[in-house]
Amino acid sequence: MDPRAALRRWSPRVLVFLLAGGSIAALLADLYGVAPMAPVFWFVSVPTMAVLAVAASLPRVDRDLRTRIRVGTVAGVLGVIGYDVVRIPFALAGQRVFAPIESYGLLIADASSSSGLTSTLGWLYHLSNGVTFGIAYVAIAARRPWPLGVVWALLLETVAVLSPFAARYGLSGHLVPIAIAYLAHVFYGYPLGRLGHDLDGTEDALRGFGRHTVSVTLVVAVAVIVGWHRPWHVPPTEREAARLSQDGVPATIVRSDRFEPEWLRIRAGGCVLIDNRSGRAYSTTAGSLPAGVAGTLCFDQPGVHRIRLGTRPYSGGFVYVDATGS
User: Fold this and answer.
1) Alpha helices in the chain (DSSP H)
2) Which of 4, 237, 250, 266 has its CB 3.0 to 4.6 Å from that of 260, i.e. a possible disulfide?
3) Rounded CA separation 137/130 (Å)
4) Residue 245 to residues 60, 122, 123, 202, 264, Cα–Cα distance (Å)
5) Residues in a beta bridge with 93
6) Residue 322 parent element (H or E)
7) pLDDT at position 173, please?
8) What pLDDT is stored for residue 317 in this prediction?
9) Quick one: DSSP state of residue 45?
10) CA–CA distance, 60 with 66 (Å, rounded to integer)
11) What is the pLDDT of residues 256-296, one digit of tens each?
12) pLDDT tens column, 170-188
């Protein structure tokens, strides 16, 4: 093949691949201490995803490239569904496999405590990663043997395990959650491989459902997330915890054995206020919480700290500790 023709063919695909990396760039920038997640998300991730959406709908863009973006989008949505559904039994068994997703919203909103809004943002970001990874794969590997989709998915998890992500979320040295993550990525990669392999057939099927199938798929996925987490709703306990919070010291309330709100965020060296109204005293890795009083827990080590109140898998909550300079 003429090198110039190959360059003309591959340059747009590589550009789409790079644009698709805009979503995960926000998390990577935060993990590696380049920049906080919030500004990178709003000023890099969102614009690059908007460019991909425009490119997928403009007639002047090469049809094959538009097809790759469209198919990659739907494959990514199906991959996210497979990835999450296969993890539900593990979550019901007590594994906190969805916890990192909740923290993404906390970072994107630059919030000191979790809420329906932060949960919504976290799950929308989770969806955006799944979609853009799907676009990236199909942009480069469309019409290739379908097992490459699974290889791509496992590669993504390997990068996560080898990155600061594993240390931040307490995965390092814990084989069970890592094994669950690899298993789930198989179910993410399978739709990518299958739909990307039969690129033209998938595009014909999508058009058979209607010209707006891809847009409708995304709108429905977003609507499900928003309806599930109801960002407009603030429970009374969360309102009360917000009133108890002070500058730099977020608060949570314990009525049984769980934090309300479940996530708090501080800088290294900071403290959180725990208003223990459960009538029971608790001993945690970060300090003791006497019954019936409000006490503070302080943290010096950056990362996600799981604070358990008892033996139930979903007891207590999480404290997200930013590095001092972040």
Assistant:
1) 3-20, 22-31, 37-40, 46-57, 63-85, 88-92, 99-108, 116-141, 147-162, 164-168, 175-197, 199-209, 213-229, 236-244
2) 237
3) 11
4) 53, 22, 25, 52, 11
5) none
6) strand 316-322
7) 81
8) 96
9) I
10) 10
11) 999 999 999 999 999 999 999 998 999 999 999 999 999 99
12) 888 889 999 999 999 999 9
pLDDT at 312: 87
Residue 211, pLDDT score = 84
26 close to 44: Cβ distance less than 8 angstroms: yes
- Give the total residue count for the chain: 326
Which of 143, 214, 149 lies closest to 188 in space, CA to CA? 149
Determine the pLDDT at residue 199. Answer: 96
**Token pair of 305, please?**
């700290």
Domains contained in the chain, CATH given: 3-229 (no CATH), 236-322 (2.60.40.420)
pLDDT attached to residue 248: 85
For CA atoms 144, 147, 153, 155, the dihedral sign is: negative
CB-CB neighbours of 125 under 10 Å: 22
Q: Which of 96, 97, 121, 125 is nearest to 110 (CA)?
A: 121
Which of 325, 322, 264 lies closest to 297, judged by CA?
Answer: 264
C-alpha to C-alpha distance for 210 and 208, rounded to whole angstroms: 5
CB of 10 within 8 A of CB of 119? no
Residue 325 confidence (pLDDT): 52
Q: Can you tell me the distance from the alpha carbon of 228 to that of 156, in angstroms, rounded to the nearest whole number? A: 27
* Stretches in the chain below the pLDDT threshold 50: 326
Residue with tokens 């970001």: 125
C-alpha dist (Å) from residue 268 to 31, 260, 302: 15, 22, 6
Give all strands of the β-sheet with 270-276 in edge-to-edge order.
294-299, 270-276, 251-254, 258-267, 316-322, 303-307
CA 190, CA 160: separation in Å to the nearest integer? 19
